[in-house]
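Protocol step 4 of 6: record predicted structures for both targets in the notebook before any analysis. Target 1:
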Amino acid sequence: MGSPGSSFIPVYKRLFDYYRNKILSQQYKPGYQVDSITRIMQKHGVSRETSKLVLRMLVEERLVVSHMGKGSFVAPIAETKKIWGMIIPFYSSNLEQLINQLDQEAQARGRQLSYFIGYNNPREEERLVETMIREGYEAAIIVPNNDESLTANFYRRLFYGNTCVVLTDYTMGGSYFRYVIQSYDLGVKRALDYLTARTPKNLLLVKNNTWKGRNLLYEFMEQTFAGIVAENYPERKVYVISDMKELDNDFVSRQQIGGILCCADTDAVRCIGRLKTYGFAFPGELSLVSYGNTELTEFFDPPITVIDCMYAEMAAQTAKLIDKGGSAGPFEQYVILPRLIIRNT
């Protein structure tokens, strides 16, 4: 049953986790007949008392229901609740705006929005989605962990029950899931069109690698950024930084930076504030675009030119998919087109 180094975990606990994971990963779907006491004994080489304890724990966790003389079965999904659950890999000012927009959509429909922040982990994401389905949430809205490739198979085989599962702000366009995404490649292109028209100098992409785990979104934006420049502006160099401490007077001057794209609004504010202390003028010596369009960018001095993520439209389209419920196709998809808003940077 165990793996090397796991012998300190009681055998009943390892067996409980084994069956629990089978149920929560939906390898055992609602109504599936789980192993009997005798079968657990034979299959795993444990005592009758251990087998009985494992089944009792599964029943107490409401994962399994037992019927006298018939056996034990994976519990049915709960009745639908007027709750939308939202899973977010990490906090950012951009995602806070998306939460607020979805909360407005939920309240307008008499629904409660519950959100879970800090789950940039594929197994945690899967566990939360499975729990929402089993508990009868009307909707599960997922901003996927930032290595989305690790959860693709999970969503392909997922049994949704009565829950509408929508992937929101997802980067794997073309995948066969129900999703509402924005066209990041178009957003990056519009930012570069603006920056290259403002300056003949080299270009800088500012990422942020503070978050735990891989960030597929930033990887995608970097590839798009470099690809567009290589194809359309081969005479210019592309620089990428992930740590704001790298950004100083020497770096900007030495690399002849003229245009900057920040992947998040908080980093755009830090970038401008930091470079202003070195005497750089916005606009003038440097032009900057931020990807997001939260209040930070509108009320900062100077107001920041942005690629608007169109979170209000994203939330509205997500809500429309939830409204459709079972009538929404499993692969119904919307692609939001971000727009450039020119301000003072």
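Target 2:
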Amino acid sequence: MQKRYLVGMMKSLVALLAVASFMGTGTAWGAARDYPAKPVTLIVPFAAGGGTDIGTRIATKAAEKFLGRPFVIQNVDGGGSEVGVSQMVRSRPDGYTLAGFNSASVILTTMRKASYHPVSDVAPICLVVSDPRLFVVRADDKRFNTTAEYIKYAKDNPEKLTIGTSGAGTSGHLALLFLNKAAAIKAKHVGFGGAGESKAAFLGGHIDSVTQTYGEVKGMLKDGKVKIIAAATDERMKELPNVPTFKEAGIDLVINSNRGFAAPKATPKEVIAKLADAFKKAAADPEYIQQMEKMGLPMKYLGPEEFGKLIKREYEEYTEVVKELGIKK
């Protein structure tokens, strides 16, 4: 009698667990089906005014037409994007808190102990921009007119050539480290809280040079405030046909700043798909294309799977490079 009672209890428990599991799955599925039911917060992990911030605002404005809800932008800078990305990673995985996720967000994890892992803690949504690195000086700085003069000055004056970036662990910082190694120089890194801050310090004469992307440099170039020393590209950019590459000077330096969006790892795939689809449709919107070209932001769309592969590849490649350079803290 007691044995039959226990068996009956076990069967009832299994049935209850099955119902609970079904209800939980149904609730999650229902939430994903109805997504989005309210505005979506998107964290820009850099200060306002930089290429990431500007590009994000243009992209989200275009995508919200297809998503059906507005994006609320929050600038949470610090740690070369670590502070903002960490806030996103720790948030509820329901699709209502996203973050910009750049090459910088990957690179910093290869250079020091970080509060998240770029592959295992993040759900990629899409890539929207792939922007090469440029090294620039002020237009009135007569010391530098060519790549050769720039490199010679750095060789003759170790630690004196100051180059600003958006912060430690960013793609700009790594580009500077690559340049030091490839050109056998010792330029001094000066990190800021974002491209806007480094640009202000540079234009104010507090540092000699900055390494930024085309979108970040374009306005200064148009206003005649800067000279571009060289581009860290394989070939000359179509937007800048008169700007030489470092390779032309015998320096093997090629590095891009890839920029996209990501969510917490456990975010439902249906939600990720809806977000990715909205940004994909935005990428074909003529108004969006015109605005991105006007700001000098080279567009490149990759969906969740392909963007995930790019993040993994960057992590593996930069881990090897950082190890080779001996710069991991």
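Step 5 preliminary note on target 2. The CA atoms of residues 62 and 285 lie 8 Å apart. The domain at 33-130+258-325 is CATH 3.40.190.150 (D-Maltodextrin-Binding Protein; domain 2).
Proceed to step 6 after PI sign-off.
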